[in-house]
Amino acid sequence: MSTFQAPKGTYDLIPPDSARFLAVREAISAPLKRSGYGYIETPGFENVELFARGVGESTDIVTKEMYAFETKGGDRLALRPEGTASVLRAALEANLHKAGNLPVKLWYSGSYYRYERPQKGRYRHFSQVGAEAIGAEDPALDAELIILANDAYRSLGLREFRILLNSLGDKECRPVYRAALQEFLRGLDLDEDTLRRAEINPLRVLDDKREAVQKQLADAPLLRDYLCDACKAYHEEVRALLTAEGVAYEDDPRLVRGLDYYTRTTFEFVHDGLGSQSAVGGGGRYDGLSEMIGGPALPSVGWALGVDRTVLALEAEGVTLELPSTTSVFAVPLGEEARRVLFAKVTELRRAGIAADFGFGSKGLKGAMKNANRSGARFTLVAGERDLAEGVVQLKDMESGEQGPVPLDSVVDVLRERLA
Ligand code: ATP
Ligand code: MG
């Protein structure tokens, strides 16, 4: 193993690719920022108990994928595998649900950790941008979140994603369905682990990715046929609102998702160009989570979109984001006096809001021009002793190749005009 190798299942974001990650985070969060969602940041780790209770003891995330550890002080912590439990914990701790109007609307962006088998689109460290609307039960809120995720993906130029939609019922109807499903699962030829899971959390068996299991589930009872009237009406309203806003979705009566806490509206964004890691994001309503972690009843809804897989989806569709060049002007000094003058000019340009960089180190004209080229700058400024004696710098347009002297005093104005 090389000393310079990132840990298994992780990778570094480095320029220029890292700019695309930033742009994706930006694009996903932009619709949230203009829809009343405030930014929240929570620690990268929490008490392990929060996830055990909040995500669910029987989920893969908690049983297999969590980085749990004991600190020197004896605390049992876990690197966060997902965002919702932490955000709700933080909102409860700060009493946000008591401070103002409900729902409390929050968005976040950060790193998450799961001990998984690394493959394309599946890493041990990955990024999500997420949103949570806490403390309101309103189908328009569910619709709002789905619309915002849809609009974010559209704004990136993605077209080949689909929205899968389902309702998981509530504490009225879900137990009836659960029992029916359990009865069905007991009659199948399943391994011991899966049978045990069927007893603890039968809905999760529907999420089993193995073909041998999926085959046997063809005739499994569907929650759709067990929804109570309230859940049915709620779901119909979410569907109607999405349709009215022109957001296409597919009803997927088998969609259950991997976390224990979902109720009613459940959805997943899938992209068909990603192979088996096809889910780019997902979310849903989690009316029971607050009580599960010891808080008051706070019906809530949210989603998380994976940044890594969204970037892969852009690649799969051949979408290239129009990222402005990071440097507009590159200054190349020839000699000590020019070095001081141009360094001051670069600082002045930056303070005027123009992205500028400088030929650092003593590498001569040729080497410095190479750097200027690599920077992607539209213009270079070159100055030597003779230019300074005349009070000018040479301004070169790197696109047209045109070059000519510009008075030192008007460099900033000229560049501002030509970059506009
Ligand atoms: P999967 O079924 O692919 O394991 P999931 O249901 O575990 O996905 P969620 O918990 O819903 O995923 O997380 C939301 C999003 O975060 C996913 O749709 C995906 O884009 C991203 N994500 C989850 N786990 C990983 C991972 N290990 N590596 C990269 N991205 C991930
Ligand atoms: Mg997973």
TrEMBL record:
The keyword Ligase applies. It is found in: Cytoplasm. Gene3D superfamilies: Anticodon-binding domain (3.40.50.800), Bira Bifunctional Protein, Domain 2 (3.30.930.10). Its EC number is 6.1.1.21. GO terms for molecular function: ligase activity. Keywords: Aminoacyl-tRNA synthetase, ATP-binding, Cytoplasm, Ligase, Nucleotide-binding, Protein biosynthesis. CDD domains: HisRS-like_core, HisRS_anticodon. It holds the Pfam family HGTP_anticodon. The keyword Protein biosynthesis applies. HAMAP family: His_tRNA_synth (MF_00127). Homodimer. PANTHER family: HISTIDINE--TRNA LIGASE, MITOCHONDRIAL-RELATED, HISTIDYL-TRNA SYNTHETASE. This is Histidine--tRNA ligase. It comes from Streptomyces xanthochromogenes.
